[in-house]
Structures are given as C-alpha cells and as structure tokens.
Design goal:
The protein is built from 7 helices and 8 strands, in the order E-H-E-H-E-H-E-H-H-E-E-H-E-E-H. It has about 220 residues and is α/β, with parallel strands linked by helices. Strand 7 and strand 8 form a beta hairpin.
C-alpha cells in the first residue's frame, strides 16, 4: 500500500481476531479515515507480535488461555492493556467488582448492553438505558482500570451487561461491540469515535504521526 505521506510515521496496527465479530468490517475503513492503516491477523500469527499496536478482537478458548496471556504480555502495545485483560479473564473478577462496591448479579439475564469507548459512554442496545445504568457501567470500568493500574481512557473499549441496578458481566478482552445492532448513522458515529480513541491511544503511546519522522 502506498502511503500519502512517506515522511510521516505510520504505526503498524493489527486487529487481532477472526470470524467471531463478523460485524467489525467497518473498523478498517474508519481507522483509514483517520490516517491509520490497520489489517486483520490472527493473534497467533507471528506478524502480529511485530506490530506497533495490537487491538484485540478475539478472545482465547479455555485451553489456550495461558498461551494467550503469555503472548499478550509480549506485545509491544496492546489494547486493551494486558493487566486489564488478565484480570478480566480471571474467575473472580465479578467478586473483585463486588468488593469495590459495584453491585453484581452474575446469575441474572442482561437487559441492557452498554458499550464504552476510551472510558466514555458510546452506545447501547436493545433500548436506550437510564442514566443510572451508565453510572453502573462506569463504576465497573473505573474499578477495573484501578485494579489494572491504568486510567479509564486506556481501555479502548468495554462492554457492560446490566440488569436493573446490577452488573451481570463486564468484558474488556474482545467483546462484540454491537455494530449490527445500530442504525447506519449511529454506527458511523460510533465507529468514528472508535477510530478517534485509537488515534488518541497512538499519541499517548508515542505512535503519533510525528513521533518518528522519516528522513
């Protein structure tokens, strides 16, 4: 691919995943619209380990969890960060949230799915939730970020499933972001926000366009 500005640094971005999230097809065009060039590769592909930034879009199966966590810690820059991923894959993450004052109910059925991008509310389905639900979701990601010793904005994405005033589950690893649940305008806006969040992450990580000027 010929880049428009060869004198400007273009980070090598990989969306690490497979067919699980079939409605992620708009992410590469959304990133490209911000001047960010990304490609899809499996997380086990050797080329993924050489990327400047890896965005998780597939989770491991139970048998491959240890291998996956070892791989995650070897990646130069991983979104979401490996400490948050390892904590979220742990068996007691909901108990940790409960200990931090977040009301949880793992046995209930979710009524609203909330998506946060860079620590901010993005979109939800099947219905627009009350403000209290967003507050509950934010409390969960704030607790998760604190346990991983990062800021909430360092979580590129988070999915919180809630039922009433209780959290059913939190996914920071590679959640479905529900693009196919949205109307066209909302989906375009949300995917643009996703790309902006990646762009901001690149700046924080020293991967901005002028961080490595080429001669």
């Amino acid at each position: 691919m010929k880049l428009a500005r060869p004198d400007v640094f273009h980070p090598r971005i990989v969306l690490a995943g497979g067919p699980r999230h079939h409605d992620d097809s708009g992410l590469v065009p959304a990133l490209r619209a911000r001047g960010l060039h990304a490609r899809w590769l499996p997380w086990r592909d050797p080329q993924t380990a050489g990327a400047d930034l890896v965005i998780l879009r597939a989770a491991p199966d139970a048998e491959g969890r240890d291998e996956f966590l070892g791989w995650a810690r070897r990646i130069r820059h991983l979104l979401n960060p490996p400490d948050a991923v390892a904590w979220n894959l742990g068996a007691r993450y909901l108990r940790d949230l409960q200990d931090d004052g977040v009301p949880t109910a793992p046995d209930r059925t979710a009524q609203a799915t909330l998506i946060f991008l860079a620590g901010k509310p993005s979109h939800a389905w099947p219905l627009e939730p009350e403000f209290e639900s967003w507050d509950l979701g934010y409390a969960a990601i704030a607790s998760a970020a604190a346990r991983a010793r990062i800021g909430t904005r360092d979580l590129l994405y988070a999915r919180a499933d809630v039922a009433g005033e209780e959290l059913v589950g939190l996914d920071l690893v590679a959640p479905s972001l529900g693009w196919s649940q949205l109307d066209v305008d909302t989906r375009d806006r949300a995917q643009r926000d996703f790309a902006l969040a990646v762009e901001s992450a690149c700046e924080r990580l020293g991967l901005g366009p002028f961080s490595h000027r080429r001669p």
